[in-house]
Amino acid sequence: MTDGIPVTRRLVSAQRADNIRQMVRRAETLGDAPDASRLARPDDAPALYALLSDPAVHAPIYTLPRPLTEASVQAFIQSHLDEREAGTGLLFVRAAEDGRIMGYSDVQVWPHWAAGELGGALHPSEHNRRQGTRGAAASFDWMFESLDLDLLCETASLENVPTQRMLDGMGFERKGEVESRRPDGSARWSLVWEMTRDAWRARQGAGQP
Ligand SMILES: CC(C)(COP(=O)(O)OP(=O)(O)OC[C@H]1O[C@@H](n2cnc3c(N)ncnc32)[C@H](O)[C@@H]1OP(=O)(O)O)[C@@H](O)C(=O)NCCC(=O)NCCS
What we know:
single chain, about 210 residues, 7-stranded mixed beta sheet, 7 strands, about 35% helix, binds coenzyme A, GNAT_dom, Acyl_CoA_acyltransferase, acyltransferase activity, transferring groups other than amino-acyl groups, N-acetyltransferase, N-acetyltransferase domain-containing protein
């Protein structure tokens, strides 16, 4: 996470924040579809490391472990299981029948602001076929409706054109730039976008994913 996000911060009641934490603790899959991504488990570390070790996957993402090793990926999975217990984070993976992990989703939640952030990546063989846009839209829906969030805040590096186009195209509002810090302490600039639940629902109602 980045200290400067979300940009919009509206405190919700302690009870609402507790309910959001409960929903995070109960989550098992990212949505209800039969092929929905499931929670990452410690024994996913080798397959998740195989996905993440491709620079086409890890280079644009500041939240991944550095250095990236199978052990650091295992610790990344474990820290998300701890975040799930705390009601503040979830890590999901989508596994193929051959055991490869074809995508992951990293959900971060600020329960006291009813806000969240989604990160993630697809296997490079699936890039640029609109699968990212479809998956992100379904995940945003789930975060607003099943986690009861009011706001989503997203970031992308200045070079990450696919993510920038995706968020602009989905109607997220640009909110400037923040300095994001990687786990090894290095920094990078990120563009920031936000979307409120009301605005998201209005777009969905108008048939605009
Ligand atoms: C970001 C990511 C999930 C997007 O998914 P995707 O399926 O590849 O993207 P889509 O096919 O849905 O395309 C999204 C937009 O990016 C554009 N795009 C896709 N690949 C592109 C490329 N290589 N160069 C320029 N634009 C590209 C598409 O044309 C589309 O824009 P449009 O709607 O204006 O036409 C995927 O590329 C990925 O996993 N990247 C690596 C990790 C990453 O960057 N994660 C996000 C940061 S947390």
